[in-house]
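Aim 2, interim progress: modelling of the phosphoenolpyruvate-bound target.
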Amino acid sequence: MSKRRTLVAGNWKMNGNRADSTALVNGLKQGIASVNNADLAVCPPFILIPLAAELLKGSAIAVGGQNLNVNKSGAFTGEISGPMLKDAGCRYVIVGHSERRALYGESDDVVAQKFKAAQDAGLIPILCVGELLEEREANKTEAVVARQLDAVLKLAGIGALANAVIAYEPVWAIGTGKTATPEQAQAVHKFIREKLVKADKAVAEGVRILYGGSMKASNAKELLAQPDIDGGLIGGASLQVEEFLNIGRAA
Ligand code: PEP
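Predicted structure of the complex, ligand included:
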């Protein structure tokens, strides 16, 4: 089958204010016409989502959250739910980012619950999976990624992946400037797809698997050329208009 349409999603993390986010979003809006072969999305911090959604209304650039609570509403001080993100104009939400797993103790089970909560709210989860450096060095990459995926498959079922995005993000490559080589990334993407093929071939062939980890304009083309790499989840490089657009243009 033909390759899936590329998705390039920017994870702004805890960066930005109203002024620089306005400039960034307006720059992307101006440049999107020259991005022909990729969908773009931005995932601002919660408080900047309404601003980005308003500025992007009617444009082809989608908005996503970076996290959500597993509950719909209630006494969860400081938290944001899936229905709130949907109401604010989000199409996507990142779940299981390695920073959430490492810094906020999100287990595979919690990530799976967030995945399901996202879909229950009508959002498309971008499910992050990926191994630590010591896990790669111990040849545990496939086991770790399989375990992270299995938690979601067990709770939500393979059919749920028809309306989701996966992001393979080797933790050692995130924010470090150390990108996985296209061959290293492709090998894991292929492993993920083949694992899913065993459960449902059509779902496996349709699901977009993004690469994340120090992806930038200068290395995007080679990564995106790999048969099982269907886009990128971009941290640092998503904060610069031309850099982010050029990743999209590399598709
Ligand atoms: C990320 O946080 O998802 C990420 C890939 O970050 P960076 O591009 O900065 O490595």
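The mean pLDDT is 97. The radius of gyration is 17 Å.
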